[in-house]
Amino acid sequence: MPTIFSKIVTGEIPCHKVGETDDFLAFLDIMPVAPGHTLVIPKQEVDYYFDLEDHLLTGLTLFAKTLAPKIETVV
Q1: Whole-number Å distance between alpha carbons of 55 and 75
Q2: What's the CA gap between 61 and 40, in Å, rounded?
Q3: CA 43, CA 67: separation in Å to the nearest integer?
Q4: How far apart are alpha carbons 73 and 45 in whole angstroms?
Q5: 51: left (phi over 0), alpha (psi -120 to 50) or beta
Q6: Which of 31, 40, 46, 58 has a CA between 20 and 30 Å from the CA of residue 52?
Q7: CA torsion, points 43, 40, 47, 57, in degrees to nearest 10?
Q8: What are 31-71's pLDDT values in tens digits?
């Protein structure tokens, strides 16, 4: 069943993209707890975070790590 996140990935729901690869998407939260609050998600839909294959789980963290310094310079 499609979630709000899968609809964001497909473009059905708009977002303010911060970064994107073939496997991951990063976008600003619509209800941020702090300036620059960014959500980083896999494009593959899974029920639970740890259901991701190891290479995607690792890749998600590395993707987020590359975005952090860029976000800090803007915020």
Answers
A1: 30
A2: 9
A3: 17
A4: 31
A5: alpha
A6: 31
A7: 80
A8: 999 999 999 999 999 989 999 999 999 999 999 999 999 98
